[in-house]
Amino acid sequence: MQAQPAHDVTALLRAWTGGDEKALDKFLPVLYEELRRTARAYMRRERSEHTLQTTALVNEVFLRLVDIHRVHFLTVAAQLMRRILVDHARRRGYRKRGGAERPVLLDESAIVSPGRSSHFVVLDDALNALGKRDARKAKVVEMKFFGGLSVEETAAALKVSPQTVLRDWSMAKAWLRREMTQAGYE
Question: Which residues have C-beta within 8 Å of that of residue 17, sequence separation ≥ 6?
Fold first, then answer.
């Protein structure tokens, strides 16, 4: 992969933070390759018997970034997990296999099992509809359900009080439950 000019990376990052979700899909591979390129350059300057590999160095950078920016990272991770789960369910042809599956409860952790994938698509559709009505409530669900963030972490990420998160969470769950019931998933 050819190195991406820094201004393109910056433009993608700005577009994503401005709400363009597709920019994140373009940004992450570019960022990863840039980090690998930088790590390879550093590793060439290390002694030959150095045991750390390029990939391990990049992974360590990500881990330390997570420590520094944990809530922001978890927010991004929640968005990515949601996309991956929904994309996986869509690829599996969820409508054909939905039969006797147990519904996804919003109080459960977002552990994926093959028997629940179709409900992620219905949940995603309902969550997108909620996002059009109330973006913050949709973000609360995304962060708590898909990202596993606590009430306090969600509040910090959204710059609201924990009480607001609890209220949004409760209202969003009721709204999504109604939407999913209307879609045939009780």
Answer: none
Task: Compute how many other C-beta atoms are within 10 angstroms of the C-beta atom of residue 152.
Answer: 12
- Per domain, the residue ranges of the chain are 1-68, 70-186
Read off the amino acid at residue 141.
Answer: V
Please check whether residue 145 is in contact with residue 117, taking contact to mean a CB–CB distance below 8 angstroms: no
Q: Is 30 helix (H, G, I), strand (E, B) or coil?
A: helix
One digit per residue, the tens of pLDDT, for the chain of length 186 reads 455 555 577 788 788 777 787 887 887 788 788 888 988 988 888 878 778 888 899 888 877 876 667 777 777 778 888 888 888 888 877 555 444 444 455 554 333 333 455 577 888 889 999 999 999 999 999 989 888 888 998 998 899 999 999 999 999 999 999 998 888 775
Query: Who's near 120: CB < 8 A, 6+ residues apart?
Result: 82, 85, 86, 88, 89, 104
- Taking the C-alpha atoms of residue 185 and residue 178, their distance in angstroms, rounded to an integer, is 9
Cβ neighbour number for residue 146 with a 10 Å cutoff: 26
- The whole-model pTM stands at 0.56
